[in-house]
Amino acid sequence: MSRPRSLSLAHSFLHQTSLVLTRTNPLADPEAVQKQLFSRAKRRVLAILKVHHGSDLEAVLAQQVTEDDEDLWARLVDEEDEEEQRQAQAQRRPVVAQLDDIRKCVSAFSFPSSRPSRLDLTQGSSSHSMSFQELKMATLSDILELRKTGLVSKNDKYQAILNALARDIRSKRASPPSLSLFELPSLEHA
Questions:
Q1: Binning pLDDT at 50, 70 and 90, where does residue 97 land?
Q2: Cβ neighbours of residue 53 under 8 Å, at least 6 residues apart?
Q3: Does residue 169 contact residue 184 with C-beta atoms inside 8 Å?
């Protein structure tokens, strides 16, 4: 039985052509790493702004963390978890962390906490947690890394991060409603 001519040509082409698939690591790309670091810093700053307020980001980051701040942070995390549970039950779906969920502000590089469990990174896995103080320290660490890359500057009190958050908020308001459970808060203190 002979092969149809088109199949023979395809078979011949495949024998003469080698295909090389190269898997690239996005973390090997310095721009991708910087973009990821900037996004994580924005998420963390947004979470911090839910507790601390100030005239500029440098002032917010410089504020001392009090027990009241830690308690407020714990309440915010608990409220978000409860809301997520309610929404999941109402929609009869499993609880899945949202993209703009407070827990997303915490990276895999969390610090050990002396406080009770806070901000589980993932549902159903080992508990990694961050207190509000640890969140601020991790954010400062991110900002120092971003300063090295030139993406943010101490001269303008890290305004680039706030500008990016403002752009994100404007684009979110301009786009059709998303499936996100949690809206971005106003950057102004009420």
A1: low
A2: 60, 189
A3: yes
